[in-house]
Design brief:
By secondary structure, this protein is an all-alpha fold. The protein folds into two domains: 2-111, no CATH class; 115-354, no CATH class. It has 15 helices and three strands. The protein has a three-stranded mixed beta sheet with strand order 1-3-2, with helices on one face. Helix 9 packs across helix 10. The longest helix is centred in the N-terminal third of the chain and has 24 residues, at 27-50. Keywords: Membrane, Transmembrane, Transmembrane helix. This is DUF3810 domain-containing protein. The chain crosses the membrane at residues 5-23, 52-74, 86-108.
């Protein structure tokens, strides 16, 4: 009986691959029948089951997976009681099961309708469009910065606990009056990761566990980055699996909130992506625009840069390569570079709202 189940699971794997290949061509179906229906119910069930637990079940799940894989490798090397064929069958069946659960619980969102189609905006923009958007962001950010500090040269300090920021971000999602995004976040399921130190060395601010739908954030990052990081991971949690889309949602949710500290995080988050994009198009103009920013804003940026530089090393480079390939496999052909496409969403959404 056991061997029969293993064989069925193993055979099911290539069938899944074929199904996913076909499904990529039907994003409307995924959007309608999975992302906007089945996933909504299954994710709410996951939140109900795991949100009350103070630590991350998802982190423990990954720890268990690592132990299972290590145990299998040790058995493979020793291989006293089982043949190589049997062990490979077990491995193939295990991968097939994990692949199935990944897609059912969350992964099909990779093949949903792109957010720019849902919003009815273009992905094309020119330097003039970008310049107009950046100038507006700089004006808003400088004005808000002056309200939060006594001098332009001071960075904004975030005197909040992790839980306080979690509550603010949760309320931002609950209180948003943005009808374009069609967001419904009923149960807070956001937790500090047990693996924050490894995440720091790997260069990650957080992640969503697709099996438990818990959003984990790296609690070691500067508190100034908590709002957009948490909002980003909640965006993933709600089914916006692509990085550029989760970044866009994090920007909109925080920039439109009534809390000044959340707005400051959101504005500087969107501004940094936009200035980086302008630098690629016109480095000189980018430098002129940066010079218009209050020195204290640049100190907030430097605070984050200093944090990541303290943990930079070979692990980060390896994980960047692995994660880039992961994104390419999951319908993001630009890999990590797809992060920059958040600017297209921001610029064109801004144009849509302004006209």
């Amino acid at each position: 009986m056991r061997n029969t189940i293993l064989k069925l699971l193993a055979i099911f794997f290539p069938i899944q691959l074929l199904f996913i290949y076909i499904l990529k061509g039907f994003p409307d179906l995924v959007e309608t029948y999975y992302s906007q229906s089945f996933f909504v119910y299954i994710s709410q069930l996951q939140h109900f089951l795991t949100s009350w637990i103070p630590f991350s079940i998802g982190d423990l799940f990954y720890s268990a997976m690592v132990l299972i894989i290590l145990g299998w490798l040790i058995k493979l090397i020793r291989r006293k009681t089982k043949s190589l064929k049997t062990m490979l069958l077990e491995a193939f069946a295990f991968v097939s099961l994990i692949y199935f659960l990944f897609h059912v619980f969350w992964g099909f969102n990779y093949y949903r309708l792109p957010l720019h189609d849902s919003l009815g905006i273009s992905t094309e923009y020119n330097k003039a469009d970008l310049l107009e958007y950046i100038c507006d962001l700089i004006q808003q950010t400088n004005t808000l910065h002056s309200q939060l500090v006594s001098e332009d040269s001071l960075k904004v300090d975030y005197d909040f606990t992790q839980k306080e920021v979690q509550d603010l971000v949760f309320k931002a999602y609950q209180n948003t009056d943005n009808t374009d995004l069609k967001i419904s976040y009923r149960i807070e399921n956001l937790k500090p990761s047990l693996f924050s130190l490894p995440l720091s060395y790997a260069g990650f601010s957080g992640y969503v566990n697709p099996f438990t739908n818990e959003a984990q954030y790296n609690y070691k990052i500067p508190t100034y980055k908590f709002p957009t990081t948490m909002a980003h991971e909640i965006g993933h949690q709600l089914g916006f699996s692509k990085e550029n889309e989760a970044n866009f949602i994090a920007s909109i949710i925080t920039m439109e909130d009534s809390n000044k500290f959340l707005r400051y995080s959101g504005l500087t988050f969107a501004l940094k992506y936009s200035l980086n994009d302008m630098y690629k198009k016109d480095p000189v103009l980018s430098g002129v625009l940066i010079s218009d920013l209050h020195p204290g804003i640049l100190k907030n940026y430097q605070e984050v840069q200093n944090f990541w530089e303290a943990y930079s090393g070979p692990v980060e480079l390896i994980m960047e390569k692995i994660y880039g390939n992961y994104l390419k496999v999951n319908n993001q052909p630009q890999g990590i570079e797809s992060y920059s496409y958040v600017v297209a969403l921001l610029v064109n959404y801004y144009k849509q709202q302004s006209h």
